[in-house]
UniProtKB/TrEMBL annotation:
Belongs to the peptidase M3B family. Gene3D superfamilies: Oligoendopeptidase f, C-terminal domain, Oligopeptidase f, N-terminal domain, putative peptidase helix hairpin domain like. The keyword Signal does not apply. This is Oligopeptidase F. PANTHER family: PROTEASE M3 THIMET OLIGOPEPTIDASE-RELATED, SACCHAROLYSIN. Its cofactor is Zn(2+). CDD domains: M3B_PepF (cd09608). Keywords: Hydrolase, Metal-binding, Metalloprotease, Protease, Zinc. Residues 205-585 form the Peptidase M3A/M3B catalytic domain. InterPro entries: OligopepF_N_dom, OligoPept_F_C, Pept_M3A_M3B, Pept_M3A_M3B_dom, Peptidase_M3B. One of its GO terms (biological process) is peptide metabolic process.
Length: 598
């Protein structure tokens, strides 16, 4: 018997998000769009006036923020309406219009930054000191000031802007090959049915319990990339060369500095991450040896790393029970946090179940001045409970930040974004390990958290190390050859995984299929984020109240200071090796617990 998915109008309203908290209906949305349009037209009359005085600058910044806030809410309503049911033509239409409207308005606001940078630094500092209204913008304006040394003459800037399209080309060429032109072979699935490999199927096949399927998927995937290794080495090398060139043209000492400095991340954060992880590789080697034993294999291969080494625990956790679990697991975070959680459940901030036309996956959304909505596709499994914990982490971060900060700091940076979400997952794991007396479940929870650390900290740091190596070589005038890339990548995989893993030669060209290598020093933030979350959750569990108070202040601080300063106030100094080492110690503790069970 098959049960069809419900239509949107068949889902109980209490399990859907209440978008009327943003706009009563689409007529109200339309009226707001016109109002913002009028405001934006008024705003363009300010062009050329920002350098006239502190009062003019303040008026412009306030109006820019009002437009920004209202535009964000307009866009939130439209895309969330579409995401809840793409078969609803209204949501689709509003979303399309919101997208092009937002692009037009952003272009109309674009004169602000260059005009501020045209004001001499001393004049700007004087205005900040003399105009009390500009005080809240002091951090934003000082951050802009720091860019002055890296902004070139108007003529050079214009040339750089015109070349922008071309410097993006390596990533676009990689994308065309990777998403369209590459042809993957067929393999036989667990039932013997012949299926063509794809990116999504590869992920699923690697999780299979059937080793033959995992092996075939791995060999098939890498055989597809093999003929393109030289082409992909050239696109990747060109991407790295363009990062290095742009850094030079903008007076940075390296591509790493060009990527980190605008976000106020000191270079030692990056270097400390790599050196601390690489000093702790014996812990990953130990995990690999335990995994090999758990899976009862003579040889542990790279294609054995994504399947669970312990059996699935059949658990049904209805949504109401998941809500109670959240309240219990996050109780250490105090009564304000608990009250906000209750409000998220009771005031319909969460869109819980799947329906026809609903977007897949999960996210935390909303905007400044709206509830921090959550989209789920909840299915009563343990994984879904963890997804709820993760998204609630983001939404509580948004909630406390937007309640406390002005609009200009009402968001948070990528560097800190995953701290609140993964901290919640850690607290949930800790709670379940201490309150459920079920050995299978305990093993499963331990493996899940160990896998998070393996894939998010170890693997992303391995990528970060490879990225640094590529850029450093180009900066030293070397070239990146296919053989050189393959050899160095293979050596890194071997060093990270240790003697318990037997490597296939195919892994030496894994770099050829990883889009993140085109992102220019991005992935290290996954590793630093989870490290900070693990370090903070240990402080909350071991230290109690003082650690909790520091953490709640962090949740309320948005982007009002640099990411490093915010985390330092919360109790983790990412410019030192301590937080990453604390995460490694937590990993070792989890290994001890797992080893005791096997
Ligand atoms: Zn997240």
């Amino acid at each position: 018997m098959s049960v069809a998915l419900p239509r949107r109008d068949e889902v109980a309203p209490e399990h859907t998000w209440d978008l009327s908290l943003v706009f009563a209906d689409s007529a109200a949305w339309e009226a707001e769009l016109s109002a913002i349009d009028t405001l934006a037209q008024q705003f363009t009359t300010l062009e050329g006036t920002l350098s006239q005085g502190a009062a003019q600058l303040l008026a412009a910044l306030r109006m820019r923020d009002e437009i920004g806030q209202r535009l964000w809410a307009l866009y939130t309503y439209a895309h969330q309406l579409k995401d809840s049911d793409s078969t609803n033509p209204t949501g689709q239409a509003l979303n399309d219009r919101a997208g092009s409207f937002a692009a037009r308005i952003s272009a109309a606001l674009a004169f602000v930054e260059p005009e501020i940078l045209a004001i001499p630094e001393a004049t700007l500092s004087g205005w900040i000191a003399s105009e009390p209204g500009l005080q809240i913008y002091a951090y934003e304006l000082n951050k802009l000031n720091q860019q002055r040394a890296h902004i070139r003459s108007a003529e050079v800037e214009s040339i750089l802007a015109q070349f922008g399209d071309i410097t993006r080309a390596p990533y676009e060429i990689f994308g065309m090959l990777n998403d369209s032109d590459i042809v993957f072979p067929n393999i036989n699935d667990e039932q013997g049915a012949t299926l063509q490999l794809s990116h999504a199927r590869y992920g699923r096949f690697l999780e299979s319990d059937n080793r033959r399927v995992r092996h075939d998927a791995f060999k098939g995937m890498y055989s597809a990339y093999k003929p393109f290794r030289n082409t992909l080495a050239t696109t990747l090398s060109t991407a790295v060369r363009s990062h290095v060139l742009e850094a030079r043209l903008r007076n940075y000492s390296s591509a790493l500095e060009a990527a980190l400095k605008p976000n106020e991340i000191p270079l030692e954060v990056y270097h400390n991450l790599i050196s601390t992880i690489e000093a702790n590789l014996p812990k990953l080697h130990r995990y690999m040896a335990i995994r090999k034993k758990l899976m009862d294999l003579n040889e542990l291969r790279m294609y054995d790393l994504y399947t669970s080494p312990v059996p699935e625990v059949p658990m049904e956790i209805p949504y109401a029970e998941a809500q109670d679990l959240m309240l219990a697991a996050f109780a250490p975070l105090g009564s304000d946090y608990a009250e906000a959680l209750r409000e998220s459940f009771g005031s319909r901030w969460i869109d819980v179940y799947e329906n026809v036309g609903k977007r897949s996956g999960a996210y935390s959304g909303g905007s400044y001045g709206t509830p921090p909505y959550i989209l789920l596709n909840y299915q009563d499994r343990l994984n879904d409970v963890f997804t709820l914990a993760h998204e609630l982490g983001h939404s509580m971060h948004s909630f406390f930040t937007r309640k406390t900060q002005p609009f200009v700091y009402g968001n948070y940076t990528i560097f800190v974004a995953e701290v609140a979400s993964t901290l919640n997952e850690t607290l949930l794991t800790h709670y379940l390990l201490n309150h459920r007396d079920d050995e299978q479940l305990r093993k499963r929870l331990l493996v899940t958290q160990l896998e998070d650390v393996r894939t998010t900290i170890f693997r992303q740091t391995m990528f970060a190390s490879f990225e640094l190596d590529m850029h450093t070589r180009i900066e030293a005038g070397e070239s990146l050859t296919t053989e050189g890339l393959c050899q160095r990548y293979y050596d890194l995989v071997a060093a990270y995984h240790g003697p318990a893993v037997t490597l296939d030669e195919e892994i030496s060209w894994e770099w050829a299929r990883i889009p993140h290598f085109y992102y220019n020093y991005y992935v290290y933030q996954y590793a630093t984020g989870l490290s900070a979350a693990l370090a903070l959750s240990r402080q909350i569990i071991n230290e109690g109240q003082p650690a909790i108070e520091r953490y709640l202040r962090f949740l309320s601080s948005g982007s009002s200071k640099s990411s490093i300063d915010l985390l330092r106030a919360a109790g983790v100094d990412m410019t030192t090796t301590a937080p990453v080492q604390a995460a490694m110690d937590a990993f070792d503790g989890l290994l001890d617990q797992l080893e005791a069970l096997v």
